[in-house]
Amino acid sequence: MDARTLVSNVTSMFSLPDVVVRVNDLINFGEATNADLEEIILNDPALTAKLLKFGNSPYFGFSGKISTVSNAISLIGHKELRNLVIASTVTSTFKGIPPELVDMDRFWYHSVTCGVVARLLASNIKSRERFFIAGLLHGVGKLIFFNQFPEESAEILTHVEKGEEAIISAEKKIFGFAYAELGAELLKQWRLPESIWKMVKFQSDPSQDNSTKMDACILYAAFAIANYIQPYTHQYVELEENELIEKLESWGYLGLTPEVIESTITVAKLHVIEVLNAIRA
Description:
CATH topology of the largest domain: Hypothetical protein af1432
Helix content: 55-70%
Distance between the termini: 38 Å
Largest sheet: none
Radius of gyration: 18 Å
Oligomer: single chain
CATH class of the largest domain: Mainly Alpha
CATH architecture of the largest domain: Orthogonal Bundle
Number of domains: 2
CATH superfamily of the largest domain: Hypothetical protein af1432
Number of helices: 15
């Protein structure tokens, strides 16, 4: 078994809602007009309400300015619209995850935190909107493992206290591949842009692909910071803030300083609850 085969076997189980697929395909093919996108979204009142609330979150800087779907599309653009539509529906996409393995509220808190932090760290990067969705979806491969292989996943989670590298090593030993590769394959099946799924694929080892090294480094750092704020599992790995700073400073590709890391943590904590409330509307 490889990651692609496993994803092919579970695609119907972990599929995006039809409205999201239609929005994504229109944008991918470059044929989307504002009117086309508005018509599709308005046919789903629940998504419309959630999208407007999400778009008006202070995190995105349009607080109170977005009053209609048409207004949202004009203000945020097609790529950001796709990300908001996916983010607004993704938490309900994953069902049947054993609660004894993971608390889904905790998992999504961690994932949203990773997305928020990634977007903050990418403040000087072109098309930075993709970093939020990559951070939000960085761990979906874990959810597939949890759903399809609960016993093996329970064994893997016994390594949590040893750190993320131990988790990855255990996944590769049992399955032959790790959650990052599996998650990337799912995002490819969802027809998300290469700039997003490649970031997810190489998040644990950014040096594997030079063309996406900066993006993957940002996601790697975002995961470390998000895990410091709140790990994604019940098990807690005690990590002092100075250890986090040393870890990221010693890996200086991003040029992160203690001041940048500390301010990022402070700002992220303020925004995560806003985003979560919008997603769960």
